[in-house]
Amino acid sequence: MSSAYVLDPQKVPLGITPTLWWNDDFPLIDIGIPFGQCVSEMALAGFQGCSVGHKYPTDPAQLKPALDLRGLRVSEPWVSTYFTIAGMREQTMQTFHQQLAFIKAMGGTDMVIAEFGQAVNPLPVALFDNRPIFSAQQWDDLFAGLRELGTIANDSGMRLCFHPHMGTGVMIQSDVDRLMQYTDPDLVHLLLDTGHLAFAGADPLYVTQTYGSRIKHIHLKDVRADVVQRVRDEKLSFQQAIEAGVFTVPGDGSIDFVPIFQALADAQFEGWLVVEAEQDPAKANPLEYAKKARSYLRETLGW
Fold this sequence. Notes:
alpha/beta
């Protein structure tokens, strides 16, 4: 990288999600790989950490030794929030507190959330045509909820990282801009998911350059541009898009990651780089793609 700043491997650990091995949202996308094999292959591929999946032990007393054995740490838990649905605030807060206690026990720092109120990504409907568009009141409810969660996380020494996501009300570029404009940068950080942004039609490089100081957590995901076009033209659902191969690992699709890494270096980013690619393991061997991703990162980052 040409900049005076480079990503520091001591401050930017590399993780990977179990979505290469199975899909937590769509259980039929699974070939039966057990937890132990999954995390062993993560370590074998050269990663230092991982997010969690439904096959993982939920008790930190069981999970931590299994990950320690393989030299892995938990990069983040996932919390779906529902601030835009009436009557769901209490459940959202309860889930958040549970996951906050979990990541504390696992020694992590980042809480990853996405607003799934009104979301259509779990549904068998056309993804783009049916995406939710929040009302002004729903946006206000979301901002108030994020302020509360951000304060709780901050007071606990944690970072609240919001994930714009396909099929949700925070999906396209204007949604991201609105989120950044009306949330406190000290309380609400941005999770940069390159794949979801590109899939939605946003430019992940622009987002990185514009909001670099607010990005505290990254999901590195590539997209296959021809499949993205198919999803639009054929009105595919999110599950159908995944099964068609819309996502892949960095370096295997259409996103140019080198300028994104440079923009992150310029912003002096410190935090997790987590490889993610929801693929069908029956079509894309998980270990093969994990190793492919690690090789690409070694080539582009230099470590």
